[in-house]
């Protein structure tokens, strides 16, 4: 078990190349764990074409599966926020990883639409990992650097979605090339890898992290522990929590949507192979490595001069750019333009993610976990609603495609109208955040030190 570090205070600087102290060890372990959680969550996305054909899934069934993949996360994030306020991030993260590894490992046993749907629903619970990562990072860093630290951990972790799109087709191909399975069954074997990685991360988290710079929650003296009663109600009663929830639905909700739908969009709209579509969609995920941290860094710098209002203005501008970029992306006439516009709206979207969570720790310092949970759930509520919209707006097409010298008739799905409508919705939300920004800033109080449920 890790011993408590002599530095019992949150760090006021972020040196990403350091492993010194419990704060930096926790920072690196929490983003790496979050990375593999996202990898596991979206591991099936680039392999859906293979699974769709083997299980004979219809367009509506694919839509239902995408909805299921984000639905369970909503409840999980709301619950996780309250649990980590009370029991601490280390214990909750460890159990989350162990429990979610089960459906990840077993989804390959699916033989029907129903079983596949249920496993996809269960895997979605792993999305609650984001709340724990943001909470754990917040408690390890001082207010002047929280936005940067949260955004960096979130950005590095979110890149797991892009890594899944890039590497899962390669992992599936490797199993086929090595003779373990046929191409049709390769998706089943490929999902073993993320399941095993979740179990490894559970061990690392339990062994090498602490709940706070002072130690684990259970070991901190009772007199130093703040009451954690009603932290969810405290967060829920603050209207700023809900404005950020809607904003996060407009950025992170769209990110989840693109992670899920981009591979199919590129295969069905532009005729890309699974490997190429996964690689292209992976670009979107890899933007997280620098874009989300950039959003947090810029927000922190703006906050020093213009405070909460300046950060909120930045968020509104980023959402407006995202909306415009989405519309252009949907109207792209070729794959080259689509990739470029995906980079444009992806950059603003992921910066908006970072900007949103640079605001979260300052809504109410006594309920950071609950605020993070509610706002985080907003991202999945947005993703779920968008998935319903995509299911309703998806067009159907068919085309003869040459495979191995043979003409094969394929049923395709067209998401052009869905992406266009989504762009206009994001524009409207960006305008709303711009209008409400001054009102939000008026309620903000100065936070000199983040007081968490474990005390100072």
TrEMBL record:
<feature type="transmembrane region" description="Helical">
    <location>
        <begin position="186"/>
        <end position="205"/>
    </location>
</feature>
<protein>
    <submittedName>
        <fullName>MFS transporter, NNP family, nitrate/nitrite transporter</fullName>
    </submittedName>
</protein>
<dbReference type="Pfam" id="PF07690">
    <property type="entry name" value="MFS_1"/>
</dbReference>
<keyword id="KW-0472">Membrane</keyword>
<feature type="transmembrane region" description="Helical">
    <location>
        <begin position="156"/>
        <end position="180"/>
    </location>
</feature>
<dbReference type="InterPro" id="IPR036259">
    <property type="entry name" value="MFS_trans_sf"/>
</dbReference>
<feature type="transmembrane region" description="Helical">
    <location>
        <begin position="29"/>
        <end position="51"/>
    </location>
</feature>
<feature type="transmembrane region" description="Helical">
    <location>
        <begin position="312"/>
        <end position="329"/>
    </location>
</feature>
<dbReference type="InterPro" id="IPR011701">
    <property type="entry name" value="MFS"/>
</dbReference>
<dbReference type="InterPro" id="IPR020846">
    <property type="entry name" value="MFS_dom"/>
</dbReference>
<feature type="transmembrane region" description="Helical">
    <location>
        <begin position="270"/>
        <end position="291"/>
    </location>
</feature>
<dbReference type="GO" id="GO:0015112">
    <property type="term" value="F:nitrate transmembrane transporter activity"/>
</dbReference>
<feature type="transmembrane region" description="Helical">
    <location>
        <begin position="116"/>
        <end position="135"/>
    </location>
</feature>
<feature type="transmembrane region" description="Helical">
    <location>
        <begin position="63"/>
        <end position="80"/>
    </location>
</feature>
<feature type="transmembrane region" description="Helical">
    <location>
        <begin position="92"/>
        <end position="110"/>
    </location>
</feature>
<keyword id="KW-0534">Nitrate assimilation</keyword>
<feature type="transmembrane region" description="Helical">
    <location>
        <begin position="335"/>
        <end position="353"/>
    </location>
</feature>
<keyword id="KW-0812">Transmembrane</keyword>
<comment type="similarity">
    <text>Belongs to the major facilitator superfamily. Nitrate/nitrite porter (TC 2.A.1.8) family.</text>
</comment>
<dbReference type="GO" id="GO:0042128">
    <property type="term" value="P:nitrate assimilation"/>
</dbReference>
<keyword id="KW-1133">Transmembrane helix</keyword>
<feature type="domain" description="Major facilitator superfamily (MFS) profile">
    <location>
        <begin position="26"/>
        <end position="441"/>
    </location>
</feature>
<dbReference type="GO" id="GO:0016020">
    <property type="term" value="C:membrane"/>
</dbReference>
<dbReference type="InterPro" id="IPR044772">
    <property type="entry name" value="NO3_transporter"/>
</dbReference>
<feature type="transmembrane region" description="Helical">
    <location>
        <begin position="418"/>
        <end position="436"/>
    </location>
</feature>
<feature type="transmembrane region" description="Helical">
    <location>
        <begin position="365"/>
        <end position="390"/>
    </location>
</feature>
């Amino acid at each position: 078990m890790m011993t408590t570090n002599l530095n019992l205070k949150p760090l006021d600087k972020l040196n990403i190349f350091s492993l010194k102290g419990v704060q930096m060890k926790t920072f690196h372990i929490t983003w790496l764990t979050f990375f593999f959680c996202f990898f596991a969550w979206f591991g099936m996305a680039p392999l859906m074409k293979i699974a769709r054909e083997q299980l004979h899934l219809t367009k509506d069934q694919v839509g239902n599966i995408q909805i299921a993949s984000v639905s369970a996360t909503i409840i999980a994030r709301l619950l996780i926020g309250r649990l980590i306020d009370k029991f601490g991030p280390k214990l909750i993260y460890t159990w989350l990883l162990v429990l979610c590894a089960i459906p990840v490992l077993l989804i390959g046993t699916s033989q029907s639409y129903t079983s596949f749907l249920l496993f996809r629903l269960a895997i979605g619970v792993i999305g609650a990992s984001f709340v724990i990562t943001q909470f754990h990072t917040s408690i390890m860093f001082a207010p002047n650097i929280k936005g940067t630290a949260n955004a960096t951990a979130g950005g590095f972790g979110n890149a797991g979605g892009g890594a899944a799109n890039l590497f899962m087709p390669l992992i599936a191909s490797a199993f086929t090339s090595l003779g373990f399975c046929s191409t049709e069954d390769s998706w089943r074997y490929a999902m073993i890898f993320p399941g095993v990685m979740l179990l490894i991360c559970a061990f690392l988290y339990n062994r090498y992290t602490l709940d706070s710079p002072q130690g684990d929650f259970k070991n901190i003296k009772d007199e130093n522990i703040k009451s954690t009663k009603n932290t969810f109600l405290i967060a829920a009663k603050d209207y700023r929590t809900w404005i950020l929830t809607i904003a996060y639905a407009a950025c992170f909700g769209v990110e989840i949507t693109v992670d899920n739908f981009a591979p199919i969009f590129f295969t069905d709209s532009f005729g890309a192979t699974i490997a190429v579509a996964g690689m292209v969609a992976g670009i979107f995920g890899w933007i997280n490595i620098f874009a989300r941290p950039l959003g947090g860094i810029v927000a922190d710098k703006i906050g020093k001069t213009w405070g909460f209002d300046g950060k909120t203005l930045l968020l509104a501008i980023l959402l407006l750019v995202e909306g415009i970029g989405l519309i252009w992306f949907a109207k792209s006439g070729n794959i080259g333009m689509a990739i470029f516009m995906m980079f444009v709206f992806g950059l603003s979207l992921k910066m908006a993610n970072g900007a949103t969570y640079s605001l979260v720790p300052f809504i109410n310092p006594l309920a950071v976990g609950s605020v993070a949970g509610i706002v985080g759930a907003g991202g999945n509520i947005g993703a779920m609603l968008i998935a319903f919209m995509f299911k309703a707006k998806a067009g159907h097409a068919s085309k003869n495609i040459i495979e191995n010298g043979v003409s094969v008739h394929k049923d395709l799905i067209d998401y052009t109208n869905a992406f266009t409508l989504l762009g206009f919705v994001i524009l409207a939300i960006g305008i709303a955040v711009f209008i409400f920004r001054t009102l939000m800033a008026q309620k903000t109080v100065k936070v000199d030190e983040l007081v968490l449920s474990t005390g100072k």
